[in-house]
Structure formats: C-alpha cells, structure tokens
Amino acid sequence: MKLKRNSGKLIIVCGLPGSGKTTLAKRLQEKLRAIRLAPDEWMDALAINLWDEASRAKIEALQWQLAQELLALGHVVIIEWGTWGRSERDVLREGARKLGASVELHYLAATPEVLFERIQRRGMENPPITYEDVLGWSEVFETPTREELDLFHPPGE
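Given the sequence above, the corresponding structure tokens read:
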C-alpha cells in the first residue's frame, strides 16, 4: 500500500492491564515525539471512576476523533486503550489507513501471575483488581494472530 507523502502514523499498544502498555507507550511517545492517548489518564484527570464503561467509551470516541485529525495532519499518534478485541483493532487500522497513515500494532503479553504482580505493585486501582479479574480478562482477550499482525506495518518502520 502506497501512503501519502507526509502521512501520519498510528501506533496501537495492545494488551491486558499490567502488560506494560503505558511504559512502552511513554517510551515511544518520547522517542517519536508522538501524541499519546490513554483514557485512564483522562478519566483520572476528570475524576471519573476508571470502571465507568459508558464514560470510557465516550472518552475513547473523543480520543479517536482527535487521533484521526492528528493523523490527517501527519502526526504520530499512540493509542493506549488495551484494544482487547480484533474488531476494535480492525476499526482503528482501517480508519487510519483511509487517512493514508501507516499503522503499527505493538502487542504486549505476560502470564496472569506476572500481570497480577505488576498490578499489585503499582496499586493504582480502586477497588483493587483481583487475581480472578486477571484470569477472567485473560480468557476474553483476543490475542492477535499471525494473520492479524500481518495486516499492520512492522513496528519501528
């Protein structure tokens, strides 16, 4: 696929809580002088409960609208939503491509034990995330397949 000159880049950072999404996204943000969009930070700044799914959906919709405007201007945008399902990743990839942007997927994985230990160490969630939560999320998370990963530009290009 030929991209427009001066096209933007969308980087999707994908994984469960505790997988290292924020750490990677912040590192990429600094290295690439990118705009990073993370709903947890917006919700925290607005004193919205992180478990409020309706508010999260509205914030992600606003962030996606902003991301598309920035991509059209040729910026690098990092979406740090978790993107647990392939359909969600497909919408972002296809939308960015329509704007002529390249799209990378950075998938981060860890065992439920490691995820839970990291979540406990950071101690940010209220109410606290339980090990049972992590196990349940691990079961519903749609891990990107090789076929799906092949739909994205390789990370770092």
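The chain has a mean pLDDT of 93. Try to locate this feature in the token string yourself.
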